[in-house]
Amino acid sequence: MNLTYFLFFICIIVCTLIITYWAAKRSNTTNRFYVASGSLTGFQNGMAIAGDFISAASFLGIVGMIAINGYDGFLYSIGFLVSYLVVLYLVAEPVHRLGKYSLGDVICSRFPSNKMRWIMAFGAFAISILYMIPQLVASGFLLRLLLNIDYSISVIIIGGLMTIYVVFGGMVATSWVQIVKTVVLMSGTFLLSLIVFSNFNWNVPSLVERVKELTPLGDAFFLPGHLFGNPIEFFSLQLALVLGTAGLPHILMRLFTVRNTLEVRRSLISSTWIIGLFYLMTLVLGLGTVALLGYQTLIANDPTGNLAAPLLAKEVGGDFLLAFVSAIAFTTIVAVVAGLVISATTAFSHDIFHHILKRGKSTEKEQLRAARWTALGIGLISTLFALRLETINVTFLVSMTFIVAAASNFPILVLTIYWKRFTQMGAITGMVSGLVASLLLVILGPHIMNPDGGWIAREAIIPIQNPGIIAIPIGFLGAYLGTIFSKKQRQSNEEFKRFFIQSQTGIASRRGEP
Amino acid sequence: MDERVLELIRRKKRLLIPNLAIIFLFYFMLPLSLIFYPDFMNKKSFVTGVTWAWLYAFLQLPFVWFMVWLYHVKAKQFDRRMEETIQEELP
After folding, report:
1. What residues form the membrane-spanning segments (chain B) (predicted)?
2. In this structure, what DSSP letter does residue A88 have?
3. DSSP string covering A44-81
4. Which of A48, A86, A207, A427 has its CA 20 to 30 A from that of A177?
């Protein structure tokens, strides 16, 4: 590793540890630990949401996908962006009003029971871990490729950092690491986009012409259809992308870190601007990679295309810019995994330990201690898993997370908030059927059952890569069937009215009123 | 008081449901039009050098920003009316 790289990395590690030290002194209550006591402004929270959301898969993966597949790569980002409208219009404000620390709080404000909490906690935990492990594995490979350090050492560094942030600094440290990441990521991609344009004298048509010359697709590069051949796969993926975000616990948890619903809306306004502008820049970087580097060079270095952005940086700015972009990729990964650790921690220590095991009676001190130990445990266990999974391809789990979230959490949230006749039984069957269906479809699908190097070397039983189009309706259907078979549990009009007014306006229950 | 609050919520819903329908329609028309009318989508649009497919994909960005802003404005009005209702109803 040469000195430039070393300095960049040390700089980032030291900066984030200073943030953690500062945050640790402030994380002395559970409210601060889980949600930074709602102290973030809308704009800060918007930056943190973007930092939580834009994973290395977005930054490196989408640039590569655009460089290789042209138009279709860009469609991915559109789905990710529009999903924020679903969050804002359907769930954002009610989730903020009903929940305290976790999604379990939101659902249990209507169906208060231990069973419901177990299931919500399990769902949040499973989704966060499923998302975290592939990120850790990918980070190990990435650092190995970029810095020439051993896979296990890279995983241990990233796993160690995310654990330190959360254990000591809780949500305050996680939020500020994510904000710093957004600033670094946005300025880095902006700088790189400017360099790309300046290489073509700010003339976009000549950039486009050069892309057409250097890609094997020629003119067809700018036409749709290179990534998604099968219309059902294509539609299914778009469906999972647009509904998935509204079920991701680590994103929805960020709606608790602001003071009121006005700030919730401000958070989502800023995050959609940041994420939208970011995806525009990834398009420029994708085109720039082809135009300045050429398709052949990219593929020769890395057939998956994930190294497109770093290679582009090296081409236009030499070692220094490459070191900078690698540092950005590193920050991107630690910010996302830290967000996942805290969401898995909340599911375990708040929902399971405090509410179920201690029946809501543990003291402030006990809760805080439990949360820190949980974060440490989760950090250690997922790092160990990531170390063991070096030889197994787990990248598909990232897109699977969106399907699982859209099939389990999303239906339950929407139906709980809006459907009068919904029952607890319906919520449980919906959650279970969504989770089971999406996981089963993945196991029986071509990601795992594949004669050509799959975990199970056989023809896939369900030959669809993106099973969202089957799994999401199953989640809704499970919730519906559970509801009509449990009519006895149905709440009275009065009960639902109280809940509904609270979810829509924040006016708390007025049980005592005549 | 509940009735007046519920009426306000109903009015908000009447505003937001059509918007939500527009969002899903506008979003899913992009993949659907690419699946069913690929030839048309690959034709040059009225913007020089840009096909309909690219134009539509780019339009999704300002569309998202506009819809977020619209929600923000409507929700602010709703919050103000709710505040007034609560003030009036208080003894």
Report:
1. 20-40, 52-72
2. I
3. HHHHHHHHHH--HIIIIIIHHHHHHHTHHHHHHHHHHH
4. A86
Within 13 Å and on the Cβ side, how many CA atoms surround A39?
14
Q: What is the pLDDT of residues A236-269, one digit of tens each?
A: 999 999 999 999 999 999 999 999 999 999 999 9
Residues of A in contact with B61 (CB under 8 A): 78, 81, 276, 279-280
CA angle A270, A325, A315 (to 5 degrees): 125
Single pTM value for the model:
0.93
Phi, psi of B70 (to 5 degrees): -60, -45
Please, what sign has the CA dihedral across residues A360, A365, A368, A372? negative
**Tokens in use for B84?**
């007034």
Q: What is the ipTM of this complex?
A: 0.94
Rounded to an integer, what is the distance from CA A353 to the centroid of its chain? 25
CA angle A76, A393, A340 (to 5 degrees): 65
Which residue of B3, B35, B74 to mutate against A (max A Cβ within 10 Å)? B35
For residue A174, the model assigns a pLDDT of 95
C-alpha distance from residue B41 to each of A154, A232, A335, A363, B34 (Å): 45, 19, 39, 62, 7
CA Rg, chain B, in Å? Answer: 20
Of A92, A132, A402, A90, the residue nearest A242 (C-alpha): A402
Whether pLDDT at A509 is above 60: no
In the numeric block, which tokens belong to residue A457? 């070397």
Q: Shortest CB distance from A89 goes to which of B23, B28, B86? A: B23
> What distance in Å separates residue B57's CA from the closest CA in chain A?
7
Taking an 8 Å cut-off on Cβ atoms, the answer to whether B68 and A261 are in contact is no
What CA–CA distance (Å, rounded) separates A276 from A268? 12
Least confident of A328-342, A349-363, A488-502: A488-502
Helices (H), A87-150: 93-98, 103-108, 114-147
Q: How far is CA A162 from CA A132, A177, A223, A379, in A?
A: 11, 10, 41, 7
Contact status, residue A225 vs residue A72, Cβ threshold 8 Å? yes
Query: Residue A215: helix, strand or coil by DSSP?
Result: coil
Contact A367, A27 (CB under 8 A): no
8 A C-beta contact, residue A158 and residue A167: no
pLDDT digits (tens, 9 = 90+) for A121-151: 999 999 999 889 888 888 888 888 777 888 9
- Using the Cβ of B25 and the Cβ atoms of chain A, whether some distance falls under 8 Å is answered with no
Q: What DSSP string runs through A306-361?
A: TTHHHHHHHHHHHHHHHHHHHHHHHHHHHHHHHHHHHHHHIIIIIIIIIIIISTT-
| The residue type at A126 | A
Q: Which residues fall within 8 angstroms of residue A201, CB to CB, at 6 or more apart? A: none
Amino acid at A137: V
**Structure-token pair, residue A180:** 């710093």
Report the alpha-carbon distance of residue A221 to residue A263 in Å, rounded.
42
CB contact under 8 A, A71 and B53: yes
Two tokens at A240? 């999972």
